[in-house]
Design goal:
Length: 250
């Protein structure tokens, strides 16, 4: 099984157009991977969620019907005076299946390793899945501290029965910049992550995120150990997202 995750962030997406363009690719691609070969996940805001989940439910297309919806963030708290936050309990009640945790844009806004862990815990308590994001910034890469940096992020999250359901390696310098990480860097990160997961007996799939596009998906998905991608900008267009999906084989 491979995975393709869309992160729409706070962008406005024309949902009708997205669906239309997505379906156009599916209709023209006879070999479009089946839902048991590639799992498609869209992480979206709660307003779009209400509209998009209705579209999914009423769709006659099986691939579109099988798109899974996740939130982009979750509160580390249960309930109470936490203005603007959304609890895992609420996410579950409205029908979302999980959430991203540890995205670098949230880490930049104050999510420490411990907060990311607490968010993972809250999802687990509700039986929801996480997509756990890790990745180094350029200064860490250049000072050869990538390994200890990634291990620290992994150690801080994988405790008290919390573990990644999907793990996205997203070097910060490659997110939204148009500069995708080179294969050697991705390979060395996959090896660091895999050694850790093996040691902890954690079974999860590693995804890559950072300027994935129609042009580079083939190269990225061919890297041993990469079992899918998390896509920001290129996921905002239904056609590009579907083309990327069509190039991920199961
Ligand atoms: C992301 O949002 O995690 C991401 C990888 O974005 P982009 O594909 O735009 O780099």
């Amino acid at each position: 099984m491979k995975y393709l995750v869309a992160n729409w962030k706070m962008n406005s997406v024309d949902l009708d157009l997205w669906e239309k363009k997505f379906l156009k690719v599916i209709d023209s691609e006879k070999d479009f991977p089946k839902s048991h070969e590639v799992k498609l996940i869209v992480c979206l805001n709660l307003y779009d969620y209400q509209l998009f989940s209705k579209k999914i439910q009423s769709s006659k297309n099986q691939i579109f019907q099988n798109i899974i919806l996740y939130a982009q963030d979750v509160s580390r708290y249960e309930e109470g005076a936490h203005t603007g936050q959304i609890s895992s309990h609420y996410l579950k009640n409205i029908g979302l299946e999980g959430s991203i945790v540890g995205h670098s844009e949230l880490r930049e806004n104050g999510d420490t390793e411990n907060i990311v862990f607490q968010k993972g815990l809250k999802l687990k308590e509700q039986g929801l899945s996480n997509i756990f994001c890790i990745g180094e910034d350029l200064a860490t890469l250049e000072s050869s501290e990538k390994k200890s940096f990634l291990l620290n992020q992994l150690e801080a999250f994988c405790k008290k029965d919390v573990e990644p359901n999907l793990l996205a390696y997203e070097p910060i310098w490659a997110i939204g910049t148009g500069i995708e990480a080179d294969s050697e860097n991705i390979k060395s990160s996959v090896s660091i992550i895999n050694d850790f997961l093996e040691q902890k007996k954690i079974n999860t799939s590693i995804l890559y995120g950072g300027s994935v596009s129609v042009e580079n998906i083939h190269e990225i998905i061919s890297i041993p150990g990469i079992e899918g991608c998390l896509v920001g900008n290129s996921s905002l267009d239904g056609e590009q997202f579907a083309i990327i999906a069509s190039k991920i084989t199961g």
